[in-house]
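Lecture notes, unit on protein representations.

Consider one protein chain, 494 amino acids long.
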Amino acid sequence: MSLVKTFPLSLLTFSELWSLVPMLILLGTAVGCMLAAAFARQGAYLVSQVLFVGGLLAALVFLFVGPLGQNVTLLNGVFISDHMSRFFAVLILLGTLGAGLMNIGYGEKHHILPEFYSLMTLSAMGGVLLVSTTELVSAFIAIELLSLGTYVLIGLRRHNASSSEASLKYFIMGGVASAVFLYGVSLLYGATGSLSTSAMKSALELSGVTGLPLMSKVGVAMLGAGLLFKLGAVPFQVWVPDVYGGASSPVTGYMITAVKVAAFGLFLRVASDLFHVPSLMSEGSIFYKFLWIVAALSMVLGSLVGLMQTELKRLFAYSTIAHTGYVLMTFVVFGASKSQAVFGSMTTYLVYYLIANLGIFASLTLLSRGDGEAIRLSDLSGLHTRKPWIAFAVSIFLLSLAGIPLTAGFIGKFQLFMGVAKAGGGSLVAVAVMSSMVSLYYYLRPMVYMYMKEDSGVDLNDQNPYLGAFLVLILALVFTLYFGVQPSSFRGPF
């Protein structure tokens, strides 16, 4: 048998080949960075940084200039390149690029190994695969590729005990969550005879006329638990503060943006099919009630516990738990209304969320303490006298996360709340508004320390102006203000 018959690459159309190019670029970039770290001992960091930035920019270019109007399927529909997958892939790569730029200079100073860039690229490749698959075993493999790189990235500060502890915690708990997810997939396969979400939807609709069988219910529950763990939603959020607090600022910035967006992309792909099953997510069903409670508790707990935080990365960990609850509202109302229009405001919100958080963690990178310890609120005292522009930028990002007018965050939160309310989620929006009012306190606290307290005298990186982090901060600041006054400039995939 000839190789052409065994591997019929000649049957791939131009569109199919083009849709593979970003993946191939990411794979080549990861291998190149790995070889640079192994052999270019003197200039390993510089070579890895050039390859990383060039590779991600090239992948972004191919995502933007490809056949945007076409939906391309590969491997009999296992992977799909459509408007939604390309949108999420762009967000993932932008979050990855931002985190990689933050590490320029920071990594050398804090003795982070140059393998940082190959691991982050492989992890981002897993995220892109995750939002492009419609088959759950492939989704599991993509989750593992995304997660394994992240486990190691968290622990790359080998001389920092909190980083090693965070890496171990995330590895153990992430492994358990992956096992739960995979067991749920196996139960759904046994109940439906398929691993494709669209085929599962058809089978569950047929079997669910008189109510879903127990195997299907347990499978959906375990699948959902695995996904909610990756999102860091209540009650699966216990790992979030410790892991975000223990990782370096660039890695935490990567997790809070690219990893979070990838998890939401998979959740959206699964929900777009399975949530159409009437007996699964109809209003009043057990899964509908559970997701409603998860969204509400995430908003409330993230806001209330965030009030007690004095360490900045832990504060933003609870902030992202609350924001996860805001986004989950759209899935709740979609389950009842079956209208995808609500996802339009959700994708817009994710863009503005990503921009603000990249800006925040670029700021934390620029302010990193000389001793490598976590930045506390008290360390920001009098920052406006020492670093006025960084204090100003941090204030804008905080106001955006709080949803204050003239920032992108206000537009995103307003559109999200209005979309959910119009779709019948008025009670959830009421919880979201109250949670937003509570969270306003801990978003304003850093500003009080920066502008109304005496100089703390803590060494906040006066000698090393990390140029990559500074570039990310400037771009995030510009887009936060621009989208705050020109909201019509952006259009999502829905």
